[in-house]
Amino acid sequence: MQEKGSISIHTENIFPIIKKFLYSDHEIFLRELVSNAVDATQKLKSLGQLGEFKGELGELKVKVSVDKEARTITISDRGLGMTGEEIKKYINQIAFSGASEFVEKYKEQDAATKDQIIGKFGMGFYSAFMVASEVEIFSKSYQEGTEAAHWTCDGSTEFTLETADKADRGTDVVLHVAEDSDEFLEAARLRTILTKYCKFLPIEIEFEGEVINQTAPIWTKQPSELTDEDYKKFYHELYPMSMDEPLFWIHLNVDYPFNLTGILYFPKVKDELQFQRNKIQLYSRQVFITDEVKDVVPEFLMLLHGVIDSPDIPLNVSRSFLQADAAVKKINTYITKKVADKLAELFRKDRAGFEEKWSDIGLFVKYGMLSDEKFYEKAKDFALVQNVAGKYFTLAEYQEHVQANQKDKNDQTVVLYTTDAEAQHAFVQAAQDRGYDVLKLDAVLDSHFIGQLEQKLEKTTFKRVDADTVGKLIEKEEQQESVLSDDDKTKLQELYKGAISNEHMHVQVEALSPQDAPVIITLPEFMRRMKDMQRTGGGGGMQMFGNLPDSYTVSVNANHPIAQRVLKAEGEAGSKLARQAYDLALLAQGMLKGEALTAFVKRSADLLAAE
Q1: Does 470 have pLDDT greater than 90?
Q2: Distance set, CA 425 to CA 209, 336, 445, 550, 573 (Å)
Q3: What is the DSSP letter of 514?
Q4: Helices (H), ranges, 486-592
Q5: CA–CA distance from 434 to each of 422, 438, 469, 494 (Å)?
Q6: 422 and 454 belong to one structural domain
Q7: CB–CB of 140/78 below 8 Å?
């Protein structure tokens, strides 16, 4: 048998398109050819199981070899093999219905449209021509009485097909590497590609005498077959540089209405919103596709690690990235539900263990609640808050805990919180002295989380503990009476204004408890919250607040003994005493620095000496 002919396409422009445009990364030629070899091998195994192939299967490895001197790469399998007629059918007849029209569309359409056009046709084998100046196929069918065939093509539309001398069934694809692709003649480069794309293929892949893959990774097994150690071992195989153990994991296994398997790990994360992308690997039938899974996995779970494998996720023809599809949305929704169900189960079965992990998983949960309404509805029952004493509560538990004592005169439950318990200690202490509870809300997303909870929780508002004097944070019907007359209050206010001399400090005289500080400096809750949200990505509407100078309230305690001393002191002495009380308030807020701090220390020494 010897034959010459033309590959059945309608334009000679198709090969340049394949070489230059179809695949963005030339290295995936090896993935495509090895995947084809694996497919052929698996099909033969299936025929054997069905009784349609009665011969000996023998060793069913796919072997990859490189000959740098001969400039060849060879991919060999012992699968189905092909007859000459099958090569003509499967290799020569590229199924384009009007390639000329396709080329025109390729020139005119945007990238998304081109991918949709290309994605309808099986082009994997032709990726070989991205790196090869000539490709040969030596193949012998498993069917008895068939001749082996030898196909050759130099990347033009011309091919030769002749009888070959091949004793064993299967296919050898030989690539004669082009001058501009020398990198692929390096064994180390090929090993890297094989490890990346073929590490979990279901048929053994041998390179340089070594099998480089696991044929049955744990996501292909049933959870009942696996131990915790199996999951942890696999985690470290995926992420060998990780020193930490995963917190827990979710084993995905669904076959309706789509096929999806995989394992998602919750890693330990810093309490920062630093998204480490490219941690979840996407596979299709155990072939690595991509580590960009933003459409498959919800945004709030992009910090997870692990593997997802689904043949139902639509890919472009080069299998390099996802195509938008309803199936992707369904998978996304399924993963969200599985994660919520797993977290709920962990909380229900081992609350103490869940609380121990909260510092690591709280970021996932809060981000999920903020970004996905369905997730919020599930998560509100296991989302936790922690008070400054270290005790954890669910949202419902905390409302019950504070509503009796922390309702204001308008029947609003006021939740007090601190973003820095050490820096805001004086304010936390003042609240606790009144019998109030204070939450720690110091994570990066908490300013947004607070806003959401105020919308969701009935008759509940949040106030940072240093946003106002404690009496105004939770206003009650009864009011503290001032010991000063209106004239004295006006005089005291003017004295403090003169001593402070700062237009961003708004002085007001208030009737506080004599046990409260003489002067209290606060940043109003609304202004502070807007600035916090702007700093953590609160959107364009928050920019104006982030750029405004801080505008503080200076509350002078009319009932503190120092108020009387300031009023009675004459001239400079009164101003000096007022400034001292004001600087103490700055010091309590960590706002006294530089020259002002030096002056405060000197003034304190002078006042002590005067005593």
Answers
A1: no
A2: 66, 39, 22, 21, 30
A3: T
A4: 486-500, 525-535, 543-547, 561-568, 572-588
A5: 19, 11, 12, 30
A6: yes
A7: no
Tokens of 488: 């004295």
What does DSSP say about strands 72-77 and 62-67: parallel, antiparallel, or unpaired?
Answer: antiparallel
- Residue 414 · residue 407 · CB < 8 Å: yes
Domain-terminating residue out of 211, 231, 248? 211
pLDDT digits (tens, 9 = 90+) for 491-502: 999 999 988 888
Report phi then psi at 426, rounded to 5: -60, -40
Q: How many domains would you assign to the chain?
A: 4
Q: What is the extent of the structural domain holding 319?
A: 218-343
Tokens of 308: 């997802």
Would you call 402 helix, strand, or coil by DSSP? helix
Does residue 518 contact residue 560 with C-beta atoms inside 8 Å?
A: yes
Q: Which residues are annotated as a binding site for ATP?
A: 32, 36, 77, 82, 97-98, 171, 319
Q: How many CA atoms lie within 13 A of 436 on its CB side?
A: 25
pLDDT digits (tens, 9 = 90+) for 150-209: 999 988 778 899 999 998 999 999 999 999 899 999 999 999 999 999 999 999 999 999
Q: Which residues are annotated as a binding site?
A: 32, 36, 77, 82, 97-98, 171, 319
Taking residue 364's Cβ as centre, other Cβ atoms within 10 Å add up to 21
Q: pTM score, two decimals? A: 0.75
Pairing state between β 62-67 and 149-153: unpaired
- Let me know whether 159 and 233 are in one domain: no
CATH number at residue 279: 3.30.230.80
**Domain assignment of residue 276, yes or no:** yes
Q: Are residues 25 and 145 part of one domain? A: yes
Q: Which two tokens stand for residue 424?
A: 């805001």
Q: Is residue 371, in this structure, part of any structural domain at all?
A: no
